[in-house]
Amino acid sequence: MTTIDRSVQLARVVGLLGGAATASEVANVVVQSGLAALGASAGIVAVQSGDGRRLTIAGSQGFEGSSLAELTDCSIEDHNLLTEAIRGGRSITLEGPAERAAADRALRGWSPPGGEGTLLALPLTSAGRPLGALALMLPDGAAHGERLDYLAAIAVGAGQALDRIRFQEIEHSARRLSEALARMSAAAAAAATPSEVASAFVEQALPATGADRGTMYVLAGAKLELIATIGYPDETAAPRAEIPIDAAMPSAAAVRRRSAVVLRSPVEMLAEFPGMTEHTTVLGHRAFISLPMLVRGEILGAISIGFTNEHALSDEVISFLRSVADVAAQALARARLYDEATSSLSTLQAVIAQMPIGVQVASATDRRILIENTRAETLLGQRRAGQIAGYLEAFHPDGRPMVPSDWPLNRSIDSGEPVTGERYVIRRPDGSNVEVSTSAAPVVSNDIVVAAVMAMTDITAAREAEELREAFLGVLAHELRTPVTTIYGGAATLLRSRRRADSTSRAILADVAAESERLFRLVENLLVLARAERGAVVAERDPLSLVRVLPRVVDEERGRWPVAHFEIDMPTDLPIVSGDEAHVRLVLSNLLSNAAKYGPANGLVRVVAQRSEAGSEIEVRVLDEGPGVVESEADSMFRAFYRSASTASKAPGSGIGLFIVRALVDAMGGRVWTKAREGGGAEFGFALPVFEDIDPEL
Length: 698
Fold this sequence. Notes:
six-stranded antiparallel sheet; 43% helix
């Protein structure tokens, strides 16, 4: 073939290479052109894998009978004519059978068709990157000059064609993987359960990788539980339904290492995981990968994929599978939260539905009632769910109509603060009224009020009972005060005027005077109780000398309780306090009576008065030798009608004395307390503010 003919042939070959769509087509063009234009008797083209690790025969002719033609693919590290040309980045020329056999065992005993010649191997490159190699068996003396230049030009054209095809394959693969990842992400985003996430994985992600089999495991304590599998035959033991976290299996190893386990060959599989024999034999896996599913550092499980084609596990596929694992992990986390939220919501709704108080939950966005239990419907006399909160006929306790913005749900949403203890009279659609006590609190998420919850209790009966009790106490106290005062005053007068009367008469008069005095004090306490429950206790804030008042009250109580010993410890220069003398006398009288009543016979009751450490108050402490105070009951002791179970049986009482003490001291701007004494007994005390600008000597 002349130079002109080869030039024409070269132009035709370049055109054919430009239209080639696969590596096989490139190989056929190169081999055929080499055989036709250069008189070659044999030709072969091999192409590197995308990761550059393997070399695959793309096309050959004339190498029949040599083991080189039978070599489908090999490692780039193997020693043969083609790999040497690629690794060396240069052409290799072999003259005669001896050189061929020495350079490549695959060519030993091979006789080229048409007689001997020169075997020439060239690397196929593009922009300096190796893409494969070609080898031609040329006639003797043909591997130089114009023929060699022609062959080099074909090699350049083939390299460029292979580079273009590879780029197109990469682009197509990337688009395919990207679309698969988008489909899986969409399916996973809609998944509400782990099984739906697993379905998105096996249906959308795996087919795009060229994988034959896949599994998804979720972490459950110290083991992995299988939730999805695809491609595994029923008769194989793999995959296991459960894998201990410490097992010598790729899925468990990925979870322990918190990184991907990539196995690119059966040799690597069995070397690291001897238990994978079934994978390499029965299942025919030639590559395997396991990846952990992690969300914010938390391991949720692992995915594992097996390939019978080891070339399918490319770097692009590995990167894609990492993204798949991330998407699956996030979807699993959402599914878990959804499951927990659904379970919690169901439990919450069941609890709310059974609660004995009315409950409403309103959205902060449109103020509509989202949740309302049966008790709330009963209290309001109508179903309000789905309606705007606060639109009902209701009144404040003083009779003012309620507007929607007053309703506790709306107030809590507007202010972002709890609203407690609000009372309203609700007029139901049937015309009946019910009085409710309400409390509401905002529901805050990310510093934003998203809803509010309100509880309401029917206090109609309690309010009516309270009004009846207040009326009864008021009538009782006022109606008893006059006759009791008369009896007490008359008995005291008779007792003083009949000093020489017989002992029996005097004893009777003394009993009448003592009991009428006790009844008088009870009436006084009832009056204070009635005022306190109406919030109407009034106290003067006059200058008051405790140095003068305390000894008098102690002397009076000493006469009433002859079985007790009373002592008083108080400096004579104690500052003047701000208070009401009548109230102070009643407070101290109640405390001293309790101390004597619950103390032992001949027990000591001490009254200690002193200035507080801060100097702004005078503290009065009553110390007894009784049974003491239980710490958990300290606050309850000052409640109306409260009597401790540990002392109620020791002495009779009404349970209002300490309540009166607190009500009167609070009205005077002071404070009260109680606590157990070391060594036994109790301390009850009160403190009153020091009266300013008053000289203690006055």
